[in-house]
Design goal:
By secondary structure, the chain is α+β, with helices and mostly antiparallel strands. The protein is built from twelve helices and twelve strands. It folds into two domains: about 100 residues, no CATH class; about 200 residues, BirA Bifunctional Protein, domain 2 (2-Layer Sandwich). Strands 2, 5, 6, 7, 8, 9, 10 and 11 form an eight-stranded mixed β-sheet that branches. The structure holds phenylalanine. The site of phenylalanine has 10 residues, from strand 10 and strand 11.
């Protein structure tokens, strides 16, 4: 007879009871949290099965101990297995639920996205740059806030010269000597006066001051004049062109501009006219017109009664070279400055300059370009 029949008997009974009880509880449980509570109740540190396992030591008969141990371990495995099964089922259910909640119909057509358009000015500047890049021109830049020296004086605008007033300059009212002293009736501001550049030509000066000849660059950018009507806006864009080398002459200038215009308008016989003109920083100077026709609010390039001025040009004035410490007997060159909006108007048939900057989204949709690089 064993010394510990009570324990042994109890364990055998408890085991059957335990398994039955656990099965009932498990069948009622419906969440992972409840499942965890059941696990702790039976198999946790102080769980029923664990506690019984601890009691094994007090059975003195080795045979009974072994048998009881086996029973208990089977019970433990049984419950463990059932809990695992339940856990798997719950996880599967949860996943199915989540999948059906997050279901996406990949066959649905995409919602239309508002696509931005490239402004004709940006597009035209890119086209101009590409054409000159192919001819070996670099790209230079200068500040939009300039000083009187770079915008006028170094470009051979004499003090008190009417050409300064012709530019309708926006002067910046700053402190100290930078301010324009109107009270004293002084129309020519001191050389350090700041202003919004009236053209891209000051980039000629800045580039010559900071580098060594030969030069061959374009300088695209914003320019400003206090002017507003059908053909003028206070802010507009120019692309300056500048070539300095030895033995450069007017033939190079004409050839360069004509080949540019042919490439830009993609037209071999584009009507071009060089008209004698005046700029303080070039001698001789010319203005370049393109033949066009205004037709029912549209502007069309080609033979017609109208001409539209698109750029100024000329041979760089010796004084400008001297101002930048270059010897005019050694270095010569030409310069040109084109109006980007004018060229865009002609190429894309846009009749009114002012519409460029009205930010009317319908206008941009009509005249703008797709960002994907095609011409639509
Ligand atoms: N800067 C001149 C203008 O804005 C254009 C120009 C540039 C003329 C270069 C000659 C040479 O009108």
């Amino acid at each position: 007879m064993s010394d510990t029949p009570v324990y042994f008997q109890q364990i055998v009974e408890d085991r059957a009871l335990l398994t039955a009880e656990a099965i009932v509880e498990l069948s009622k449980c419906s969440t992972l949290e409840e499942l965890e509570t059941i696990r702790v109740k039976y198999l946790g540190k102080n769980g029923t099965v664990t506690t019984l396992l601890k009691k094994l030591g007090s059975i003195s008969s080795p045979i009974e101990k072994k048998e009881a141990g086996q029973y208990l371990n089977e019970t433990k495995q049984d419950i463990e297995q059932k809990i695992e099964e339940k856990k798997r089922t719950f996880k599967q259910e949860l996943l199915t639920k989540q999948l059906s909640a997050e279901w996406v119909d990949v066959t649905l057509p995409p919602r239309p996205e508002v696509q931005g358009r490239i402004h004709p000015v940006s597009r035209t500047m890119a086209e101009i740059s590409a054409i000159f890049a192919a001819q070996g021109f670099a790209v230079a830049e200068g500040p939009e806030i300039e000083d009187d020296y770079h915008n006028f004086t170094a470009l051979n605008f004499p003090e008190n010269h009417p050409a300064r007033q012709m530019h309708d300059t926006f002067f910046l009212r700053g402190e100290g000597q930078g301010a324009r002293n109107e009270e004293k009736g002084n129309l020519d501001p001191p050389p350090s006066t700041l202003l919004l550049r009236t053209h891209t030509s000051p980039v000629q000066i800045r580039t010559m001051q900071s580098g060594k000849p030969p030069f061959r660059f374009i300088a695209p950018g914003r320019t400003f004049r206090c002017d507003s009507d059908m053909t003028h806006t206070p802010m507009f864009h120019q692309v300056e062109g500048f070539v300095i080398d030895k033995n450069i002459h007017m033939g190079h200038l004409k050839g360069c501009i004509e080949s540019f215009l042919r490439a830009f308008f993609e037209m071999d016989n584009v009507p071009v006219r060089f008209r004698p003109s005046f700029f303080p920083f070039t001698e001789p100077s010319a203005e370049v017109d393109i033949g066009c026709k205004r037709d029912k609010g549209e502007i069309k390039i080609g033979a017609g009664a109208d001409w539209l001025e698109v750029m100024g040009c000329g041979m760089v004035h010796p004084n400008v070279l001297k101002n930048c410490k270059l010897d005019p007997n050694e270095w010569q060159g030409f310069a040109f400055g084109m109006g980007v909006e004018r060229l865009a108007m002609l190429k894309y048939g846009i009749p009114d300059l002012r519409t460029f900057f009205e930010s009317d989204i319908r206008w941009l949709k009509h005249y703008g370009f797709s960002s994907l690089g095609d011409a639509s």
